[in-house]
Amino acid sequence: xxxxxxxxxxxxxxxxxxxxxxxxxxxxxxxxxxxxxxxxxxxxxxxxxxxxxxxxxxxxxxxxxxxxxxxxxxxxxxxxxxxxxxxxxxxxxxxxxxxxxxxxxxxxxxxxxxxxxxxxxxxxxxxxxxxxxxxxxxxxxxxxxxxxxxxxxxxxxxxxxxxxxxxxxxxxxxxxxxxxxxxxxxxxxxxxxxxxxxxxxxxxxxxxxxxxxxxxxxxxxxxxxxxxxxxxxxxxxxxxxxxxxxxxxxxxxxxxxxxxxxxxxxxxxxxxxxxxxxxxxxxxxxxxxxxxxxxxxxxxxxxxxxxxxxxxxxxxxxxxxxxxxxxxxxxxxxxxxxxxxxxxxxxxxxxxxxxxxxxxxxxxxxxxxxxxxxxxxxxxxxxx
Length: 384
Hints:
The chain is an alpha+beta fold. It is about 40% helix and about 25% strand.
């Protein structure tokens, strides 16, 4: 887009239709609704009312319509369900390179179109008469296409596309690649957050300066309730006399040579109880945002005042524990002695020992410490 001079000032000239298509395409990388705007602008370049981005999966022999303008939902559905396999273009598109244009009047011929069920039973039913298409991407798995559909009354307009339309094709391909990459990153980030939030153990990732790059819901809750853990401009810090130990722990995990794991115990600051902080270096080059972040460390917080409950339904499903046996098992995980559990539940010590023996047998353990270790692996999943 060129600029023009007006009374000594440079102002942008009005953008061309080709420029507007390109703007909408790249806008669509982050804003999906802009693809409809791009397809509408492409229709103007092609002098038609309908356009679509379609695909063909070679493995399943199934077609798809991913974006479209001007095409009724029933038209898209019938194409995918049945008529994609009858499209004469299917047998000819392998002869066209990416960016080359297939025009049915030219490459199929009027007489063949008049005998084709694809044209007579399908396109005519929706008042469509002719199509032009170009391959956008092609690999062993299949192909994707940009397709224009012309109304019956304007079918003669379906000629070889203009040079302006052909110049836009590389931008369509690049925008599709960027959009696909962005979608993958969004999916990875969503999956990462979902998995981490399923873990009840508070987990976070920090850089060498203590800046939090990622934290699950458990970590956010732990930070909110712990008086000595504070955030200053997005950086995790520990107040009081434990601050120096925290700085040394962070340096050992991120900047020391070699980098080493470590831990510390932190008083709650608001009453009895201790929070254990475990920190371990993450592999070089790892980053939650796929950007260079320097050395990073993974932090796990374990607050003795807020023990994690074992998911009852899961344990009952895996080990067939009765409700009474489950209550005893949970007491062991909390660090209770059998006598304490008996007192809490209001039963005899003999009853608790009988139930504990059954838990040992069902879980394949033989000692309380072994049982607590086993149950602890399930506790990180939360009580569901």
